[in-house]
From TrEMBL:
Keywords: Transferase. Gene3D superfamilies: 3.40.47.10. It comes from Dactylococcopsis salina (strain PCC 8305) (Myxobactron salinum). It holds the Pfam family ketoacyl-synt. The keyword NADP does not apply. The lineage of its organism: Bacteria, Bacillati, Cyanobacteriota, Cyanophyceae, Nodosilineales. This is 3-oxoacyl-(Acyl-carrier-protein) synthase. One of its GO terms (molecular function) is 3-oxoacyl-[acyl-carrier-protein] synthase activity.
């Protein structure tokens, strides 16, 4: 069966924005182990905490989405309007910051239709001029992969030839800070993925948006191709509102589904972009999952030591970094790691390495588990 018959889905445009800058800047910061995390006090009612902000104050969802979507379209050399283009852009927190302000100030000038959870998708659809399918997934920290997976399915099912997909998050709000602090999940000094001294998550803002196309459509317009989406896996523990299932059965199932759809075995994967939030429980469970399914030789790293934890956008940013790894054949380091707490092949320094297949993992509240594999198209052709 040929690529066209299988409706191969490729990525022809990427835009990523984190506290470290755009995709190129964030990638270089990652390779040079430069973190954008610092002590910040965006709200006077809260003491300073380590955060990763894009600007001097927390961003708004619409502003961030507009910038990222416009850059993704430009990167793919597309010009709006794209009437038949699908849109799948998610956010786990949506316009929570604006809602909190509205609730406090009782500002009647605010149109509640403009602060619904689907604002990122609506904003993206308006920018691209889409009259096609518009979806707004919300799956906690797995939102990014969930969004890209739905875009992949739209193309696989021949409902669209092009889809704008990804996730954007602006989670730094008083309620979010208070919630994570109450849970005891917030770090005091910084983000240290998989480290023995890890102390909790560090919130960050940002997002990543991709232009997905069928290989046929991309080839027809001679588009540059970053890589191919080979498969994904999505499961839910339904175990606890915030804690992962101790045996991680559904987490392993998501990875196995992903490998099966990708027609790969565990040994084929060269690099794992781990979710690793730098919390005691998540890192331990994820390390056990990786150890139970993959050989020790598979390289592993988390990039949250540079970007912070962008919640729903984190796995989309992970896919962006995985594609950069494929493109440049470089394993990115696990920034913030000093002394490993686990028997994993953790990347300490940026390292040149042959990478054909990269796996991105994400695990969110409510037991949301997701996995996605991206690969080099030229490796298969």
């Amino acid at each position: 069966m040929t690529h066209d018959q299988k409706q191969t889905v490729v990525i022809t445009g990427i835009s990523c924005l984190t506290g470290g800058g755009n995709l190129t800047q964030s990638w270089q910061n990652l390779l040079q182990e430069k973190s954008n995390i610092s002590l910040q006090q965006p709200f006077f009612s809260f003491p300073p905490v380590p955060l990763s902000l894009i600007g001097e104050k927390p961003s708004s969802l619409a502003t961030l989405t507009t910038e990222i979507v416009n850059d993704a379209i430009a990167d793919a050399s597309l010009l709006p309007p794209l009437a038949n283009c699908g849109v799948v852009v998610g956010s786990s927190r949506g316009c929570q910051g604006q809602i909190e302000q509205w609730a406090q100030q009782k500002d009647q000038s605010v149109n509640w239709l403009d602060i619904l959870p689907n604002q990122a998708a609506v904003t993206a659809a308006k920018i691209v001029g889409s009259r096609g399918i518009v979806l707004s997934p919300m799956a906690a920290c797995s939102t990014g992969i969930c969004s890209i997976a739905q875009g992949y399915d739209l193309i696989q099912g021949r409902q669209c030839e092009q889809v704008i997909a990804g996730a954007v998050e602006t989670p730094i709000t008083p309620l979010t800070l208070a919630g994570f602090e109450k849970m005891g999940a917030m770090a005091k000094t910084g983000c240290y993925p998989f480290d023995q001294q890890r102390e909790g998550l560090v919130l960050g803002e940002g997002g990543a948006i991709f232009v997905l196309e069928s290989l046929k459509a991309a080839t027809a317009r001679n588009a540059f191709i970053y890589g191919e989406i080979l498969g994904y896996g999505l499961t839910c523990d339904a175990y606890h509102v915030s804690a992962p299932d101790p045996n991680f059965r559904c987490g392993r199932l998501a990875v196995k589904q992903c490998l099966k759809k990708s027609r790969l075995c565990a040994a084929d994967v060269n690099y794992i972009h781990a979710h690793s939030t730098s919390t005691k429980l998540n890192d331990e469970r994820e390390a056990q999952l990786i150890q139970s399914l993959f050989p020790f030789s598979v390289a592993v790293s988390s990039t949250k030591g540079v970007t912070g934890h962008t919640l729903g956008a984190s796995s989309a940013i992970g896919v962006a970094f995985a594609l950069m790894s494929l493109r440049e054949q470089i394993l990115p380091p696990c920034v913030g790691l000093k002394q490993s707490a686990f028997n994993l092949n953790l990347v300490r320094k940026a390292t040149s390495h042959q990478i054909n297949y990269a796996l991105v993992l994400s695990f969110g509240f409510g037991g949301q588990n997701s996995a996605m594999i991206v690969g080099r198209l030229d490796h298969k052709m």
